[in-house]
Amino acid sequence: MPDTRITAAQVARRAGVSQPTVSRVFTPGARVSADKVKLVQDAARELGYRPNTLARSLNTGRSFTIGIVLAYLKNPFYPEALQKLSERLSERGYHVLVFFAANMAEEVDSVVEGLLAHQVDGIILASTSMSNQLTARLRDLNMPFVLFNRGQDDRTLPSVTAANYDGGRLAGQFLAAGGHSRIAHIAGWKKSVNGRDRQQGFVDGLAAHGLTPFAVIDSHYRRSMAITATLDLFSGAEVPDAIFVGNDHMAFAVLETLRCDLRLCVPRDVSVVGYDDVPMSAWKTYDLTTLRQPVNRMVEETVSMLLSMIEDGVTPKGRVEIESALVIRGSARVPEGWADGPI
Amino acid sequence: MPDTRITAAQVARRAGVSQPTVSRVFTPGARVSADKVKLVQDAARELGYRPNTLARSLNTGRSFTIGIVLAYLKNPFYPEALQKLSERLSERGYHVLVFFAANMAEEVDSVVEGLLAHQVDGIILASTSMSNQLTARLRDLNMPFVLFNRGQDDRTLPSVTAANYDGGRLAGQFLAAGGHSRIAHIAGWKKSVNGRDRQQGFVDGLAAHGLTPFAVIDSHYRRSMAITATLDLFSGAEVPDAIFVGNDHMAFAVLETLRCDLRLCVPRDVSVVGYDDVPMSAWKTYDLTTLRQPVNRMVEETVSMLLSMIEDGVTPKGRVEIESALVIRGSARVPEGWADGPI
DNA sequence: CTGAAAGCGCTTACAG
DNA sequence: CTGAAAGCGCTTACAG
Fold it and tell me: Is the pTM of this model over 0.90?
């Protein structure tokens, strides 16, 4: 709280013009004569004037602020997404208010209350669990929002995700075509649409090769649970020869457990495929074959959907899915002739 | 921009009271009779009223918003710090506005302009490079700010860092006591006070054992440069037997390069020590011996410094340094009798 | 305790 | 183009 906030009225006095004229000089579209502009700009510079955006927002009803609700940043997909969302929004003149809400739906709800009170122009929801009431409420309030990397069963809600079903299916086909026959799935989270879609695609991909999953273990996108799941998978008489993991973040834990605890060789003993293609996947330590979730395209799409709702009043187009390409690296055996695509 | 924003005046009309009374009901300290409270709360609930915080801020001069300026989130220390800063500030009733400014000082400056225009109550600067003019300006404006994980030469500026000199010194002593004699330093960034302090401590730590660094290579806290530096260190006839790396983020790249490219064994052939103790350091894949930068304590200290300036007008106490403990894991040979502490 | 009034720092018709 | 006036949705002395 600086002692001396300079106001438009002070600038006006110094420049010898009216306060609204000062306002006009700082309003892009407004018409002001060149000489007034100069007078005002000089006075403003001398006094160190900066228009108060809060007062402006109160008048215009637009805060140029977007709220982003996140669950956590442990999965490295999110820091990258957050930074890119923030950068794209900044370019378009918006500020970003971030909130972390762990997965309980109530917490998300109260955070959204705060965002509404703060008069944000729109909201990006990237937290895993969101009550249906919440999205219904935002829709009733006519508050623009986009679900980022999450779906809801209602496909008319504006959301941007990867084509998770197709991605999962591709993973299943790739591993089956690679000659594996005991293919397990360390899954994301049953209650997330993303997780369900990936799993269903995977199951169908195997089915196309006459296979069923060796096992499916729900691991809530958590490292610790992925480690336990991996150990469990290898504790019996029969063990898997391949694992499709619900995201890269868990896949790193799986690779580590296979190598450091189970002393298995990847991909000789076990093939591993992840989902996301976060930058770490390309590190030599992991060299993970994975389905690419194109952050850049997801971010662009999210920002353009949201801003078209806000600025142009466009009706959201419902769920947008972005294709997931398979990025082949060293962690999974490559089927012969795969270059030609899935069989 | 919801069509129907409910205002205090509408609630007042419905409740049969004056608009200021509605305001009082939503103002913690204000005195209102119990029956008015009930009337207003009922009306507010029925209409779905939510006080407009922008209007409130315009009156009170307090926005309950803190700006956080970051450079990037690639180094996993930052996502964790950001989340914790945000959570602590939320608990205290503040919203968080995030900005990413790559390292050019001008960019940081323009971001701060935006923050000032947005009427933030305070600023946390966590971006690597900050012009001295900027901090001088904030000080002149009497805008509360804290430098997070960065110092400036002027030690009277409010900042929270690890005790980097001591940490670097401990790393040097630990490696020297471990019997290494050709100890290299893949350093952070010469222009950052953090990097310089760690390096100076390291050099002095070696000196205490009669050693000088095998080499010091500035790698700007970047993975790619750390990889190049590692390869360079091992390209000559004489090679190092230990490396102290300026942060964990680079140390992961160093470990990977040693193992995957140079086919060296850690710690048999080379000991590696990092700085930060980000969660990944504990992963079995890395098992990195490192100096702990206690995020939690740094966050607590930063938030309490900033809020005491904002809320109590307390004069900042200058740089606060938080002790860095050595976390011993498997990536570096442990000196005999080290349990007793540095020699 | 509570209402009428003024004001926070702007924007935006409204005249001219 | 530009000034006087009203208003955005609140808070806060000021009376009573």
Answer: yes
